[in-house]
Sequence to fold (225 residues):
Amino acid sequence: GAGVSQSPSNKVTEKGKDVELRCDPISGHTALYWYRQSLGQGLEFLIYFQGNSAPDKSGLPSDRFSAERTGGSVSTLTIQRTQQEDSAVYLCASSLTRDTDTQYFGPGTRLTVL
Amino acid sequence: GEDVEQSLFLSVREGDSSVINCTYTDSSSTYLYWYKQEPGAGLQLLTYIFSNMDMKQDQRLTVLLNKKDKHLSLRIADTQTGDSAIYFCVHGSSNTGKLIFGQGTTLQVKP
Fold:
Protein backbone atom coordinates (compact mmCIF):
# COMPACT_ATOMS: atom_id res chain seq x y z
CA GLY A 1 0.00 0.00 0.00
CA ALA A 2 0.99 3.65 -0.16
CA GLY A 3 3.51 4.89 2.34
CA VAL A 4 3.88 8.28 3.98
CA SER A 5 4.12 11.03 1.41
CA GLN A 6 5.39 14.56 1.80
CA SER A 7 5.34 17.63 -0.38
CA PRO A 8 7.15 19.47 -1.68
CA SER A 9 10.29 17.36 -1.84
CA ASN A 10 12.42 20.49 -2.03
CA LYS A 11 11.66 24.06 -1.01
CA VAL A 12 13.91 27.05 -1.40
CA THR A 13 12.74 30.25 0.22
CA GLU A 14 14.03 33.63 1.22
CA LYS A 15 14.68 34.58 4.80
CA GLY A 16 11.58 36.06 6.39
CA LYS A 17 9.05 34.24 4.21
CA ASP A 18 6.52 31.73 5.51
CA VAL A 19 6.52 28.11 4.31
CA GLU A 20 4.07 25.25 4.56
CA LEU A 21 5.11 21.61 4.43
CA ARG A 22 2.58 18.86 3.91
CA CYS A 23 2.42 15.27 5.12
CA ASP A 24 0.01 12.52 4.11
CA PRO A 25 0.29 9.66 6.59
CA ILE A 26 -0.45 6.02 5.92
CA SER A 27 -4.19 5.49 5.83
CA GLY A 28 -5.51 4.31 9.19
CA HIS A 29 -2.52 5.50 11.18
CA THR A 30 -3.69 7.56 14.12
CA ALA A 31 -0.30 8.89 15.23
CA LEU A 32 1.67 11.43 13.20
CA TYR A 33 5.07 12.91 13.98
CA TRP A 34 7.23 15.68 12.59
CA TYR A 35 11.02 15.59 12.91
CA ARG A 36 13.82 17.79 11.68
CA GLN A 37 17.18 16.56 10.45
CA SER A 38 19.86 19.21 10.21
CA LEU A 39 23.08 18.59 8.30
CA GLY A 40 25.27 16.09 10.16
CA GLN A 41 22.78 15.77 12.99
CA GLY A 42 20.39 13.12 14.18
CA LEU A 43 16.69 13.61 14.06
CA GLU A 44 15.09 16.17 16.32
CA PHE A 45 11.51 15.60 17.43
CA LEU A 46 9.20 18.55 16.72
CA ILE A 47 5.55 17.68 17.28
CA TYR A 48 3.28 14.67 17.65
CA PHE A 49 -0.43 14.15 16.97
CA GLN A 50 -2.43 11.24 18.33
CA GLY A 51 -6.01 10.96 17.12
CA ASN A 52 -8.10 13.87 18.33
CA SER A 53 -5.96 14.57 21.39
CA ALA A 54 -4.14 17.85 21.86
CA PRO A 55 -0.78 17.62 20.08
CA ASP A 56 2.50 17.28 21.93
CA LYS A 57 4.33 20.43 20.84
CA SER A 58 7.23 20.06 23.22
CA GLY A 59 9.82 19.78 20.46
CA LEU A 60 8.93 22.91 18.51
CA PRO A 61 12.02 25.17 18.60
CA SER A 62 10.18 28.49 18.61
CA ASP A 63 6.74 30.05 18.25
CA ARG A 64 7.44 30.54 14.55
CA PHE A 65 6.73 26.83 14.15
CA SER A 66 3.21 25.45 14.20
CA ALA A 67 1.43 22.40 12.85
CA GLU A 68 -2.08 21.23 12.38
CA ARG A 69 -3.68 17.98 11.41
CA THR A 70 -7.01 18.17 9.68
CA GLY A 71 -9.58 15.40 9.99
CA GLY A 72 -7.07 13.16 11.70
CA SER A 73 -5.19 12.64 8.47
CA VAL A 74 -3.16 15.20 6.51
CA SER A 75 -0.83 17.44 8.49
CA THR A 76 0.73 20.78 7.64
CA LEU A 77 3.86 22.14 9.32
CA THR A 78 4.11 25.92 9.02
CA ILE A 79 7.25 27.93 9.62
CA GLN A 80 6.72 31.67 9.79
CA ARG A 81 9.40 34.28 9.11
CA THR A 82 11.92 31.63 8.15
CA GLN A 83 15.53 31.96 9.27
CA GLN A 84 18.66 30.40 7.79
CA GLU A 85 18.96 28.06 10.76
CA ASP A 86 15.61 26.57 9.77
CA SER A 87 17.31 24.96 6.76
CA ALA A 88 17.02 21.21 7.24
CA VAL A 89 15.18 18.13 6.05
CA TYR A 90 11.76 17.94 7.64
CA LEU A 91 10.54 14.39 8.06
CA CYS A 92 7.05 13.17 8.78
CA ALA A 93 6.26 9.76 10.20
CA SER A 94 3.10 7.92 11.08
CA SER A 95 2.32 4.90 13.20
CA LEU A 96 -0.77 2.83 13.83
CA THR A 97 -1.09 4.02 17.40
CA ARG A 98 1.10 5.68 19.97
CA ASP A 99 3.23 3.80 22.49
CA THR A 100 6.26 3.39 20.27
CA ASP A 101 4.50 1.48 17.53
CA THR A 102 6.77 1.30 14.53
CA GLN A 103 6.97 4.64 12.81
CA TYR A 104 7.08 4.79 9.04
CA PHE A 105 8.82 7.77 7.57
CA GLY A 106 8.14 9.83 4.50
CA PRO A 107 10.91 10.92 2.12
CA GLY A 108 11.17 14.33 3.72
CA THR A 109 11.09 17.92 2.53
CA ARG A 110 14.46 19.60 2.11
CA LEU A 111 14.06 23.23 3.13
CA THR A 112 16.71 25.75 2.19
CA VAL A 113 16.42 29.28 3.52
CA LEU A 114 18.57 31.77 1.64
CA GLY B 1 17.53 14.09 29.46
CA GLU B 2 17.18 11.17 27.12
CA ASP B 3 20.21 10.55 24.94
CA VAL B 4 21.33 8.02 22.36
CA GLU B 5 24.97 7.84 21.32
CA GLN B 6 26.66 5.96 18.53
CA SER B 7 29.95 6.15 16.72
CA LEU B 8 29.84 8.36 13.63
CA PHE B 9 31.75 6.27 11.11
CA LEU B 10 32.58 2.64 10.32
CA SER B 11 34.51 1.31 7.35
CA VAL B 12 34.59 -2.38 6.41
CA ARG B 13 35.53 -4.49 3.42
CA GLU B 14 32.90 -6.24 1.36
CA GLY B 15 32.20 -9.69 2.80
CA ASP B 16 33.28 -8.78 6.32
CA SER B 17 30.89 -8.39 9.24
CA SER B 18 29.93 -4.91 10.42
CA VAL B 19 29.07 -4.13 14.01
CA ILE B 20 27.47 -0.82 14.88
CA ASN B 21 27.18 0.01 18.55
CA CYS B 22 24.85 2.28 20.44
CA THR B 23 24.27 3.32 24.04
CA TYR B 24 21.24 5.01 25.51
CA THR B 25 20.37 6.62 28.82
CA ASP B 26 16.61 6.22 29.28
CA SER B 27 15.69 2.91 30.89
CA SER B 28 11.98 3.25 30.11
CA SER B 29 12.29 1.81 26.63
CA THR B 30 9.72 -0.42 25.04
CA TYR B 31 11.26 -0.83 21.62
CA LEU B 32 14.69 -0.18 20.21
CA TYR B 33 15.04 0.30 16.49
CA TRP B 34 17.61 0.44 13.76
CA TYR B 35 16.75 2.68 10.83
CA LYS B 36 18.73 2.89 7.61
CA GLN B 37 19.07 6.00 5.49
CA GLU B 38 20.58 5.68 2.04
CA PRO B 39 21.86 8.74 0.17
CA GLY B 40 18.94 10.82 -1.08
CA ALA B 41 16.41 8.39 0.33
CA GLY B 42 14.07 8.44 3.30
CA LEU B 43 14.44 6.57 6.54
CA GLN B 44 13.76 2.87 6.29
CA LEU B 45 13.00 0.69 9.28
CA LEU B 46 15.61 -2.05 9.26
CA THR B 47 14.78 -4.03 12.36
CA TYR B 48 13.66 -3.61 15.93
CA ILE B 49 13.82 -5.44 19.23
CA PHE B 50 11.52 -5.43 22.21
CA SER B 51 13.22 -4.30 25.39
CA ASN B 52 12.47 -7.65 27.06
CA MET B 53 14.55 -9.51 24.48
CA ASP B 54 18.30 -10.06 24.38
CA MET B 55 18.76 -10.92 20.75
CA LYS B 56 16.93 -10.85 17.45
CA GLN B 57 18.14 -12.34 14.20
CA ASP B 58 16.73 -11.45 10.79
CA GLN B 59 18.62 -12.89 7.84
CA ARG B 60 21.98 -11.10 7.76
CA LEU B 61 21.07 -8.85 10.67
CA THR B 62 21.62 -9.63 14.35
CA VAL B 63 20.54 -7.23 17.07
CA LEU B 64 21.95 -7.65 20.56
CA LEU B 65 20.53 -5.81 23.57
CA ASN B 66 22.23 -5.53 26.95
CA LYS B 67 19.65 -3.83 29.15
CA LYS B 68 21.91 -3.68 32.17
CA ASP B 69 24.53 -1.69 30.27
CA LYS B 70 21.94 0.06 28.05
CA HIS B 71 23.87 -1.08 25.02
CA LEU B 72 22.45 -2.04 21.63
CA SER B 73 24.36 -3.39 18.66
CA LEU B 74 23.60 -4.21 15.06
CA ARG B 75 25.67 -6.83 13.29
CA ILE B 76 25.49 -7.14 9.52
CA ALA B 77 26.97 -10.40 8.24
CA ASP B 78 28.61 -10.59 4.82
CA THR B 79 28.40 -6.84 4.34
CA GLN B 80 27.71 -5.73 0.76
CA THR B 81 28.35 -2.43 -0.99
CA GLY B 82 24.58 -1.93 -1.02
CA ASP B 83 24.70 -1.80 2.77
CA SER B 84 26.54 1.52 2.59
CA ALA B 85 24.26 3.98 4.36
CA ILE B 86 23.72 5.84 7.60
CA TYR B 87 22.37 3.65 10.38
CA PHE B 88 20.38 5.27 13.17
CA CYS B 89 19.97 3.71 16.58
CA VAL B 90 16.58 4.74 17.94
CA HIS B 91 15.17 4.46 21.42
CA GLY B 92 11.41 4.38 21.92
CA SER B 93 10.41 5.75 25.29
CA SER B 94 7.42 4.13 26.93
CA ASN B 95 7.09 7.26 29.08
CA THR B 96 6.71 9.80 26.31
CA GLY B 97 5.90 7.76 23.22
CA LYS B 98 8.68 9.62 21.42
CA LEU B 99 11.55 8.25 19.42
CA ILE B 100 15.00 9.48 20.35
CA PHE B 101 17.52 9.17 17.53
CA GLY B 102 21.26 8.80 17.73
CA GLN B 103 23.34 10.91 15.36
CA GLY B 104 23.75 8.02 12.95
CA THR B 105 26.71 5.84 11.97
CA THR B 106 27.92 6.13 8.42
CA LEU B 107 28.84 2.68 7.15
CA GLN B 108 31.30 2.64 4.28
CA VAL B 109 31.74 -0.69 2.51
CA LYS B 110 34.86 -0.98 0.38
CA PRO B 111 34.91 -3.46 -2.49
Notes: DSSP finds no helices and eleven strands in chain B. The radius of gyration of chain B is 13 Å.
